[in-house]
Amino acid sequence: MDEVIAIKNRYGSASIAMQGAQLLSWAPEGEKPVIWLSKEAKFVKGKSFRGGIPICWPWFGPHPSDPALPAHGFARNLDWQLKDRRETEAGTLVVLALAPNESSWPHQAELEYRIKVGKQLELELVTRNKGSDSFVLGCALHTYFHVSDVRNVKVLGLEETQYVDKVKGGEKIQEGALTIDSEVDRIYLDTDSSCVIQDPGMNRSIRIAKSGSRSTVVWNPWAEKSEKLGDMGADGYLGMLCVETCNAHDDVVTVPATGEHCLRAVYSLCDLSIL
Hints:
The chain is mostly beta strands and 275 residues long. The protein has one helix and 22 strands. It has one domain: Beta-galactosidase, Chain A, domain 5, CATH 2.70.98.10. 3% of the residues lie in helices and 44% in strands. A nine-stranded antiparallel beta sheet has the order 5-6-7-8-22-18-17-12-15, with no helix packed on it. Strands 4, 10, 11, 13, 14, 16, 19 and 20 form an eight-stranded antiparallel beta sheet that branches. A three-stranded antiparallel beta sheet has the order 1-2-3, with no helix packed on it. A hairpin with a 4-residue loop joins strand 2 and strand 3. The radius of gyration is 18 Å and the shape is globular.
């Protein structure tokens, strides 16, 4: 693999690939990893890696009008530049930058990605419109969380939220906590709520707070699709769950001329007993 930034401080450790600015790992001190990376991940130039936190930008999913363009945009496939790195009392700050020059993206924009590794993991993806016209933006932090066994976890915070079911079709309302026992691919709409992954097998919960996000995606490919993907690893789907901070589907945002948008997520661990 090309250049990777390694972080180790008193709060924990993390690693970030310069390709796609993809965070590959994060583990608080004394804890098991919070971010999942496939043991069969293929590190290929120009393609995102299976696991970690790929960045979806400037669209989420297939391009709205040209299916030949890469799914989830191109930012996750390009090399980013290191803009700043500094150590503080609160942890380590890494700032990465990208000024895309893509024929598939006719707008002038700059991206800045701020990653803070401290007692919690803080992520800020800032899109700056450098042009004279507004543009529509879809984006996501496509985070793979490490869980003990996805069949035994619950996701809280999406109750009574409408979602698009991309596996079974149609729009539905989430009833109670979300549990996983088959392939799941859902876009929860018009929600800025925090989510919590309760994981009794690890005796912990992962809290996912966010801002600048109007939708949440939950994804697990399950066994059959995992085999087709080819890089999930044997039973890898059991140890991961994607809960993604997004602006997707109808929840895309408009970035005005000379304006900016900040997609922010904060991940932290807490005990099961305090929820």
